[in-house]
Amino acid sequence: MKTIITFCVAIFLLSSISSMDVSVTPLEQYAPAVYDSQYPTEITLSIKNNGVSEEFSIYSLVGFDIIPDKIFLYQGQEKNITFKIIPLNNLRGDGFYSFEYFIKGGDGEERNTILLKVMKLSDFFDIWADKINLSSNSFKIHIKNKERISFDDLKVSFHSLFFDKSERISISPFGEEEISIELNKNRMNQILAGFYTMKVSFELGGVKDIKEIPIEFKESKEIISNISKKGFFIQRIKIEKENKGNTLLESIITEKKNILAALFTTTTVEPDVKKIKGFYVYYLWKRNLKPSEKLEILITTNWFYPIFIVLLVLALVYFIINYSRKDVLLLKKVKFGKTKKGNFALKVSLVVKARKDIKNLRVVDKFPSVLKLHHKFGVEEPSHVDEKRRVIEWNFEEMKKGEAKVLSYILYSNVKVIGKFALPLARAYYEKNSGKSEEEKSNRAFLVYE
């Protein structure tokens, strides 16, 4: 009898559980979830109470918290309720994953499943960047959330040749964020146009992921030229060409000079081509310039060189003409020697040569006070010696054209002499056949004694 009663109670309870009438319809196919994390996700369910009014509990036994965990529905009431699903452990393995949950009321419970789509953090986003122009100071990066999930305090870092930047953003389901990036102009000026890779790093609650996207550096071709000229006698032409673009560009500099100017022209960079055509010399420089690279040529024409040469020639001509007009040539020579006692001695020789007939020739020479005169002379004895005034004088009534005489004397010192001697100039006084008096000076004689 007791067995029959127990069986009847069990039948009653089972019929009571199965009699709970709740309809559940997911409004989304799945709930997106972040791989290897416990970041919460959401799903919206449409729940209808087909039974009596009561409170229902929602729970899972397989590692998920569901919030809210209690709802109240009147009899016949239908609600769209968004539930937050919190994994109690890091989700492993990307792809679709379903878990079981229960809706429990006073009369029984309803068993259902929720489908999760587990994705790597970077796969939640579409990322693209504006094209970078060489003239730009900034550009924009666009981030679009592809799923029905919100992200709060998401750290996004961008790394490329052009910039480095990190920023924290919050992005709503299917939302889009626009991030402005300041460009590093110093870097840009060294980079060639083309496509480059930008690394985008995501960080959310300890989860990190990286995504690479291409960015385009638009081509820009520009060469700036600058020419400056200055100077008169020393003419300087400075030619500069700088690649202000971001491609490899060929730069050509040309210049021409007349043949005379070319003789006195120098360049800081050897020309690639130098050729003569007609009365001109043509110069050409050719270089492939990288971005921000310069080609700088300084062309210098020094007109002091030809002026110096002309003055030198004029001076030489003047000397030749003046030399050819001289009536008398007077040359002074000094030779070092020693006396019999080993004392310092100098032999001074004066060579007198008449280039025309002259008369009343008087040759006068002086000697330094530190030296004494030795009264031993050459072939021609002096006419007068004044040792106080240190003057020696030779007199000749006449000399014929082409005639030459050598006048010599010896100087000595009992004291050791060291240093450089500059002997006084000798002078020749004479009369031309016309009766006009003239004077001729000798060269200055030097002697170094150590």
What does this structure look like?
There is one protein chain. With 450 residues, the chain is mainly beta. It has four domains: 18-119, Immunoglobulins (Immunoglobulin-like, Sandwich); 121-217, Immunoglobulins (Immunoglobulin-like); 223-305, no CATH class; 326-449, ntegrin, alpha v. Chain A, domain 4 (Immunoglobulin-like), CATH 2.60.40. Helix content is 10%, strand content 56%. It has four helices and 34 strands. It has helices spanning 2-18, 185-188, 259-262, 304-325; strands at 22-26, 31-34, 41-49, 54-59, 64-67, 70-73, 78-87, 95-105, 108-119, 125-129, 138-145, 151-159, 164-171, 176-182, 194-204, 207-217, 223-230, 234-243, 249-258, 265-267, 273-277, 280-289, 294-302, 328-338, 344-354, 358-366, 372-374, 384-386, 391-399, 404-413, 419-422, 427-431, 437-441, 446-449. Strands 2-9-8-4-6 form a five-stranded mixed sheet. Mean pLDDT is 87; it is low at 1-19.
